[in-house]
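Exercise 7b. Backbone tokens:
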């Protein structure tokens, strides 16, 4: 094997491992991305305490969904186990990312407004609780009624 080719493979392997490590690293500030046709927002440490929610204003059946890691255990807003609750500045919102019924979605605008200006956010399910950061959340998200908000402009 050519020496240059071996060094290129080694450099590629190192870069690949760094990319994979950074993809699962903890984030103490809110970030956003795009995945599977939805805008995603996420913060925390995926192994311990993490919140990820996705929005698609064009999806009438499931325009908002969320997943959380609470004390190392994963929970989802769309399952038959009741999802997870979010506590914003001491006010508890029951499975707020489940919006597939009129009663369920009716609480989402107030939750959204509170979450955008939160000083503290905690996640709760099955007797477990954990905190996630709030830094950068209000900058990344738009007011509920904004046309630029993929989490609030759907026909749902």
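Sequence design result:
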């Amino acid at each position: 094997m050519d020496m240059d080719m071996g060094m290129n493979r080694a450099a590629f392997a190192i870069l690949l491992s760094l990319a994979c490590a950074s993809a699962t690293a903890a984030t103490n500030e809110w970030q956003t991305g795009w995945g599977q046709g939805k805008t995603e927002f996420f913060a925390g440490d995926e192994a311990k305490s993490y919140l990820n929610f996705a929005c698609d204003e064009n999806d009438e059946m499931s325009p908002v969904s969320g997943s959380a890691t609470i004390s190392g255990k994963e929970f989802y807003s769309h399952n038959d186990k009741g999802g997870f609750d979010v506590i914003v500045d001491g006010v508890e919102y029951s499975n707020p990312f489940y919006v597939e019924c009129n009663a369920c979605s009716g609480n989402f605008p107030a939750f959204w407004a509170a979450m955008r200006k939160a000083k503290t956010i905690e996640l709760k399910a099955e007797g477990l609780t954990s905190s996630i950061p709030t830094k950068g959340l209000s900058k990344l998200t738009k007011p509920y009624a904004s046309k630029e908000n993929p989490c609030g402009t759907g026909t749902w």
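Instructor comment: Residues 28-140 form one domain. The helical segments are 3-23, 102-106, 108-116, 137-140.
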